[in-house]
Design goal:
It comes from Halogeometricum luteum. Helices cover 38% and strands 17% of the residues. By secondary structure, the protein is an alpha/beta fold. An eight-stranded parallel beta sheet has the order 8-7-6-5-4-3-10-9. Strands 13-15-14 form a three-stranded antiparallel beta sheet, covered by helices on one side. A two-stranded antiparallel sheet has the order 1-2.
């Protein structure tokens, strides 16, 4: 996983989760506590409610990207930039300032006037955007979007989101954002939930991941909460997002989100990582070869890393990257013998538990790669109706 340096702020696996607070100088923005048209009041808000509460990055929006509003032109965004720059210059706290825009002209002007990074909500639909960011040596968050400057974020399917993030390439300092929320009528709440379930896949680019899930509808619906009462569901999802590998959390609720993100980081899987300089979280002596244990829990996640490395491999290679474990309870003697033999032939592991006197059948553990489990189930399914039904459940789970 690449570490991105955003004006001295390191973003990556070896850094704490970074909190991106939000400041809007757009009268259209729906979240009124973060909206200002007076630079002094905006700066006070940043100092007190964002930087003062733990924000590492302040993301400044010049317009609302809500699908209900007309899109501003680059010239109209530039007209609002003075207020954003004045507010930034009036802030006393220390933070990285990000400009949210889809236009390279606005990004260029903002970076020239003191902004540190760019949050591109159209995912390099403007092909000059990566050029501008590279010229300024600036970090850029790239949100999944169609190649359309008029309407960002209408990507629905997770595989399409993944491909959209790759469109027009990456800079050396790109952070990827899979784009949660109601950016278009086409995207449903279940689409967002599926994207969240598969969040680890976006680590397959080998670049830091940003998520913007603060009080979003796809979380609120689960608990039946309106926006005002949705903070708890946002915090639960924040911990889960960081545990699944997210590095930047964009939020209006800075202090609470910071705490939730730190909990997610603390209880995330411990992965071995050694750089070529020899620094390691596993206390391994230095050397010329870097080592990184990838966060892979499904074959699909493994496929993303194979694609990143340009490996043209059969699907079975990705399937060998994970192991699934099933407990089968109540097996008859003949089923146990059949399953044990089939598992041995297929390369799965079979373990039978101790049977209590008078117990109705045997308890076993069956574990292996998806391929090994499918082969085991196919070979063993003919012994009895009970075993066939049980193994049908296993096969459905690993397909």
């Amino acid at each position: 996983m690449q570490t991105v340096d955003a004006a001295g702020l390191e973003i990556g696996d070896d850094s704490p989760p970074r909190i991106m607070g939000v400041l809007n100088v757009s009268k259209e923005s729906p979240y009124s506590p973060s909206v200002f048209d007076d630079a002094g009041e905006a700066a006070e808000y940043v100092d007190d409610a964002l930087v003062g509460e733990g924000a590492d990055i302040v993301d400044v929006g010049l317009e609302s990207a809500n699908k209900r509003f007309e899109v501003l032109s680059a010239e109209e965004e530039l007209d609002r930039l003075d207020t954003a720059v004045e507010a930034m210059e009036s802030v006393s706290g220390d933070a990285v300032f990000s400009i949210e825009t889809r236009y390279h002209e606005v990004a260029d002007e903002a970076l020239s006037r003191g902004f540190d990074m760019v949050n591109d909500i159209c995912g390099f639909a403007d092909p000059e955007m990566p050029v501008v960011c590279e010229d300024h040596d600036a970090a850029v968050a790239k949100m999944a979007s169609p190649p359309d400057l008029e309407r960002p974020g209408a990507v629905k399917e997770v595989d399409d989101i993944y491909d959209a993030l790759a469109r027009n390439g990456f800079t050396d300092k790109t952070i990827v954002d899979p784009a949660f929320g109601g950016w278009s009528e086409a995207k449903t709440l279940e689409d967002d939930r599926e994207t969240f379930r598969r969040l680890r896949e976006f680590r397959g680019y080998g670049r830091p991941v940003l998520v913007s899930i603060n009080r979003k509808n796809f979380l609120r619906e689960v608990a039946g909460r309106d926006t005002e009462d949705a903070l708890p569901v946002s915090l639960a999802a924040t911990s889960m997002a960081v545990e699944r590998g997210a590095h930047v959390i964009r939020t209006h609720d800075v202090a609470e989100t910071r705490d939730a993100a730190l909990i997610g980081k603390e209880f995330a899987r411990r992965r071995t990582r050694r750089t070529r300089s020899g620094a390691s979280n596993a206390d391994v002596d230095g050397g010329d070869v870097s080592v990184e244990e990838l966060d892979v829990t499904t074959p699909r996640e493994a496929e993303r890393h194979l694609d990143r490395l340009g490996v043209d491999a059969p699907a079975s290679v990705a399937e060998e990257s994970v192991v699934r474990v099933f407990e089968l309870d109540g097996l008859a003697d003949g089923d146990v013998r059949t399953l044990a033999a089939a598992a041995g032939d297929a390369g799965a592991t079979f373990a039978r538990g101790t049977t209590e006197p008078g117990a109705a059948g045997h308890d076993v553990l069956l574990l292996g790669t998806p391929r090994a489990l499918r082969e085991t189930a196919t070979v063993a399914e003919g012994e009895s109706d009970a075993l066939r039904s049980a193994l049908d459940s296993v096969k459905r789970a690993v397909f």
